């Protein structure tokens, strides 16, 4: 465990010693900030319109969760899928390009510890990102009265989705010494998992159910409504486990070359 923690903290420090952390953080917060402002402005316009019409029944039907929180969290999932390869492309590809992978692989540390250390290092950065992004619902909670449960379960969904993307990105980073190639591979896998449910309605009920289950965003929808289902959590944990397992096997093959 000490080895995993040492690798994870080193990985987290390396993020902030390079421009990538600040580019990802600033880019993500700017994009989501613009979306949040736009959704909140639209909600305010509806409130003003219904207030001027003096129709309290319609005004009571307006919900911050339905009109601001859920669309914001849904957009975050897509932005996550686009940005996660930027975080993971350097995890091991940079080590191979600089030649430090030999030092790491010949040290008395198991390849599973290396994989977990790299994974948790990127996950710690993901937690920093989500912590900063929690400012948006915090503003709603301070000035309004949204439901808290869907916000918390929605951020749990984002955490699990982000960890799944990190695990797959880590595997992509172990198979090449090019960060660009690693980023493209990770982006391709995540894009496939994002789009795989698109033809679900055209391929029959049973096959459609399989495609929907394989979709990485399909399992976050209920969680963003405040519902936590076992099958959704199992899906993300399975994806994380597969990514870490493949990364460990890839590192093991590198060690024995």
Main attributes?
257 residues; mainly alpha; 12 helices
What would you say about this model in short?
This protein has helices at 2-16, 19-52, 56-61, 64-88, 93-98, 101-105, 111-133, 135-143, 148-174, 179-195, 205-214, 230-255. The protein is mainly α and 257 residues long.
Largest sheet: none
Estimated share of beta-strand residues? under 5%
**N- to C-terminal distance:** 26 Å
The number of strands is 0
- Mean pLDDT, all residues: 84
List unreliable stretches of 5+ residues.
none
In total, the number of domains comes to: 1
Oligomeric grouping of the chains = single chain
What is the number of helical segments per DSSP (H or I, 4+ residues)?
12
Kindly state the percentage of residues in helix: over 70%
Q: Structural class given helices, strands, pairing?
A: mainly alpha
H/E element string? HHHHHHHHHHHH
Radius of gyration, whole Å: 21 Å
Which geometry do the CA atoms define?
globular
Structure description:
With 257 residues, the chain is an all-alpha fold. The chain has one domain (2-255). It is 79% helix and 0% strand. The chain contains 12 helices and no strands. Helix 2 (19-52) runs antiparallel to helix 4 (64-88) and helix 7 runs antiparallel to helix 9. The longest helix has 34 residues, at 19-52. The radius of gyration is 21 Å and the shape is globular. It starts with a helix and ends with a helix. 35% of the residues are buried.
Question: What is the strand and helix layout of this fold?
Answer:
Elements: H1 2-16, H2 19-52, H3 56-61, H4 64-88, H5 93-98, H6 101-105, H7 111-133, H8 135-143, H9 148-174, H10 179-195, H11 205-214, H12 230-255
